[in-house]
Amino acid sequence: MGLFILRRVGVMILTALCLTFVVFFMTNLYPNLEKLAKTQGNFRMSDEAVASWLEKRGYMQSTPKKYAEWLGVVPSYRFEAEDGTVTGRCIDPGVDPADAPNFCGILQGYWGYSTVFKEPVSEIVSTRLGLTGVLMFWVMLLMVPSALILGVLAGMREGSATDRTLSTFAITTTATPEYVSGVILIAVFASSAVGLKWFKGTAASAMESPNFENFFLPVLTIALYGMGYIARMTRASMAEVMTAQYIRTARLKGVSFPNIVMRHALRNALIAPFTVIMLQFPWLLNGVVIVETLFNYKGFGWTLVQAAGNNDIELLLGVSVVSVIVVLVTQLISDIGYVYLNPRISVT
Amino acid sequence: MEELTWTGSLGDILDPILFVLVPVFVALVVLRIAVSVLLPAPTMQTNPDGTLSAVSGGPAVWVPKLSNLSGLLLLALVLAYLIVGAIMGAPGAGIIGGMSQQLVPVWIALVVLFAVSINFKRRLGLYGKLFDSTIGMIGFGLVMFWVFVGAFAAVDMLLTHAPLDQVSGMKNKVPGTPLRGAEEGEFQWYLLGGDALARDVFSRMLKGSTIVIAIAPLATLFAFMVGITLGLPAGYYGGKLDTFLSFLANLILAFPVILLFYLLVTPEIVATGLPQYMAVVLFVFPLIFSAVLINSRYGGQPGKNWTYLAIVLVPLFLLYMSVINANDSKIDFWPLDFFDIAPGILVVFVSVVFVNSPTVFRIVRGLAMDIKTRDYVAAAQTRGEGPWYIMLWEILPNARGPLIVDFCLRIGYTTILLGTLGFFGLGLPPESPDWGSTINEGRKLLSIYLHPALPPALALLSLVLGLNLLADGLREESLKD
Predict the structure, then answer these.
(1) Are A291 and A274 spatial neighbours (Cβ–Cβ below 8 Å)?
(2) Which residue of chain A has the CA closest to B465?
(3) Closest CA–CA distance from residue B254 to any residue of chain A (Å)
(4) Based on C-alpha coordinates, what's the Rg of chain B?
(5) Coil, helix or strand for A41?
(6) Closest residue to B36, CB basis, from A18, A162, A289
(7) Mean pLDDT of A99-115
(8) Average of per-residue pLDDT across A286-315
(9) Residue A337 has pLDDT above 90, yes or no
(10) Residue B322 within any structural domain of the chain
């Protein structure tokens, strides 16, 4: 088991390195750098001005070298102007270049500085991640129990009216992407045209004080899309378990139906949904981006859109590192958890 | 001209019935669920002639019957709205009637398709069996509805106005607003209202289906070509090749899709020609696939082999070169460049294929690993067949069931991805009538005006739902044998 986890962590680090390099490469293509220079400097810069702006900030070095600097394995770039002042990535304004560290990268715990928000990346990522964490917590709280209940109820008696109705509901929610369900929910519950106005169509105020009125719609929108999928998986697994030999034996013994479901079937039926729930995280991340944009909730997904839209290289890298880690760690947890839940599977 | 109501004078008769029927139906369905959860299944008795029937009486028997009946009545009512509406047309039957009349070619095509298919369903294989399952038929109906709408809208049938025409005074007007100063022969209303730029929402929604119907299945097909061509050897050979390809697939899958889109589909990246280079790699897979497919089968008969290869590969090659070459771009060397794809479309297409292929790869790999242990594969190996023959002519046909089902689901997923791209304003030009872009535009004024955003949202929902139901029906029917 220890070796298995070690190997998975090794693959994880390799994957994260590859992915960040891809992001790094894409964001450092010349047209993107030119756009960055023009948005940071001014839009009417000449080509020479752009080149010197980039030169001064070290963007003109080769991509692998810049990547190594970002990682913190080679000394970072310093630019010496004609008047002798030295500027560089590691040198904060007002600090003597001689005192500044030579290496500053991820390994040293320095995540860089966002060009859009004018704040250190680590601060932005941690505050935004906190906000998204609150959102995800409520999503999970709403999604997982209701999906499991739906799935178990539907799979308990395959082919019954309950099964058909709940399955139709589950299929409909999986067929409704967040930007569709969000729009429909806002239209019905938040617009002045329908006039119900039970909830607010924006979650901007939920960042300080989340309450039912401003937070329910975004939570519901994300939860609905994932819920259908988990419910269908639970239903399939429950239906399969209900046809198993030992359930028939329990029935023939005279165990009551609720007892069969609760004590005999449920635990075995929940193994498959567990993996599915863990593997939903990457999809939820997608949903988070859409919903945060739609409801103007300035969390992690919103930050991703802002960083990507403005080619904010270091923020984008920080965001992708975090999201890749989230994806890979949930995969790892789902694998390990699967082994624990199902003793027939072994990792070796 | 008066403003249209939703159902017009037809509604005077039918609306009261609808208002009674809907609550009754909902109540009966809820009751039915409650009954099936709380009460035991109706006890069966054996009749003298050997058949089974439920013991009469008790809510477990009559509730399902009543709910079925009310469901049928509801269906009949909806059909009445559509059919009478199609005959009466816009002023008489309101907005619904106007739309239904506008869609008459689609109704005719659907009825013909269903009549022919049901008539010959025993001779049509898996496709025919689809018509044995209600779910599958509903799904197929929804999908074919949008396919026909997309096809007819591509040649500018069905549309009431040009999707880019702006008419003064129609900005954000509610559904059914008459056109100010409409000329003779012009359609008199904006059936679903006007959007923020005074364009007709109804026509834009129909025109948007063309884009989806054109891109989504084709992109899914390409993703399948890539996934199959790489997944079969990975699953069949295993070992280093498998490790390497699986690592690559997991790498792409670990990317948040939206980040990938933002990295691939910005104008700056398009300027570097990166999507074109990706197209060079991704679009070559159909060629490889068909070449290997033919060669592995007819390799022993050179005459046939070369004929078939030439018949298939020459047009494909010309097509491939025309697609990857575009005037005034990074790749522009081929003199026989027959057509240029709009750069927006190409980028969207490439990124959607790129995102979908790793999942297909994983499915195919899993299936190949499973099937390669079967006896018929061992038999083929003993016969001395080549590995590619076994993969493409023994393993692949036996993996078709799950692949067809996944193909349907994946078209739906691709549709969602296309919508996501539009929602973030990536790829396609902002005036494009595709559903994602229209939803994105409409959502900005959503708290005041619903009508620009809701129709494309519901259209997308119904298409994806149709594809999911179709996949469900296919899965059910293919499991039966």
Answers:
(1) no
(2) A175
(3) 6
(4) 27
(5) coil
(6) A162
(7) 82
(8) 90
(9) no
(10) yes
User: pLDDT confidence of A286, banded at 50, 70, 90?
Assistant: confident
Q: Do A194 and B450 touch (CB under 8 A)?
A: yes
Q: What is the DSSP-derived secondary structure letter of residue A80?
A: E
Q: How many domains does chain B have?
A: 2
Q: Which residues contact A54 (CB under 8 A, 6 or more apart)?
A: A33, A37, A60
- Segment B201-256, tens digit of pLDDT: 999 999 999 999 999 999 999 999 999 999 999 999 999 999 999 999 988 888 88
Same structural domain, B445 and B319: yes
> What are the residue ranges spanned by the domains of chain A?
2-108, 121-341
Distances (CA, A) of B199 to A23, A249, B146, B275, B456: 39, 66, 21, 32, 14
Residue B253 within any structural domain of the chain: yes
State ipTM: 0.89
Strands B189-190 and B177-178: antiparallel
Q: Residue B453 and residue A180: Cβ atoms within 8 Å?
A: no
Q: What is the pLDDT at residue B157? A: 83
**Rounded-to-integer distance, Cα B344 and Cα B270, Å:** 9
Backbone angles phi, psi at B428, to 5 degrees: -75, 150
> H-helix or E-strand containing A58?
none
Query: Does residue B430 share a domain with residue B290?
Result: yes
Range of the domain at B286: 211-478
Confidence (pLDDT) at B395: 94
pLDDT of residue B414: 94
The closest alpha carbon to B234, from B29, B15, B415, B387, belongs to B387
Of A279 and B321, which is predicted with more confidence? B321
pTM: 0.90
A214 CB within 8 Å of a chain B CB? no
Domain A121-341 belongs to what topology?
MetI-like fold (1.10.3720)
Does the residue B171 lie in any domain? Answer: no
Position A224 pLDDT exceeds 70: yes
Of B250, B257, B447, the CB nearest to A191: B447
Q: Which of A15, A35, A184 sits opposite B268 (nearest CB)?
A: A35
Task: Supply B358's token pair.
Answer: 């790793």
DSSP-derived 3-state class of residue A56: helix
In a domain, B278, yes or no: yes
In SS3 terms, chain B reads as: CCCCCCCHHHHHHHHHHHHHHHHHHHHHHHHHHHHHHHCCCCCEEECCCCCEEECCCCHHHHHHHHHHHHHHHHHHHHHHHHHHHHHHCHHHHHHHHHHHHHCHHHHHHHHHHHHHHHHCHHHCHHHHHHHHCHHHHHHHHHHHHHHHHHHHHHCCCCCCCCCCCCCCCCCCCCCCEECCCCCCCCCCEECCCECCCCCEHHHHHHHHHHHHHHHHHHHHHHHHHHHHHHHHHHHHHCHHHHHHHHHHHHHHHHCCHHHHHHHHCCHHHHHHCHHHHHHHHHCHHHHHHHHHHHHHHHCCCHHHHHHHHHHHHHHHHHHHHHHHCCCCCCCCCCCCCCCCCCHHHHHHHHHHHHHHHHHHHHHHHHHHHHHCCCHHHHHHHHHCCCHHHHHHHHHHHHCHHHHHHHHHHHHHHHHHHHHHHHHCCCCCCCCCCCHHHHHHHHHHHCCCCCCCCHHHHHHHHHHHHHHHHHHHHHHHHHHHC
Burial of A217 from C-beta contacts in 10 A (0-12 / 13-18 / 19+): buried
Q: What is the DSSP letter of A78?
A: E
B269 interaction partners in chain A (CB closer than 8 Å): 26, 29, 31-32
Amino acid at B7: T
Q: What is the mean pLDDT of residues A219-238?
A: 90
Query: With 0-12 CB in 10 A as exposed, 13-18 as middle and 19+ as buried, what is B237?
Result: middle
Q: Which amino acid is at B145?
A: F
B37–chain A Cβ distance below 8 A for any pair: yes
Q: Alpha-carbon distance B152 to A136, whole Å?
A: 43
Whether residues B251 and B389 share a domain: the answer is yes
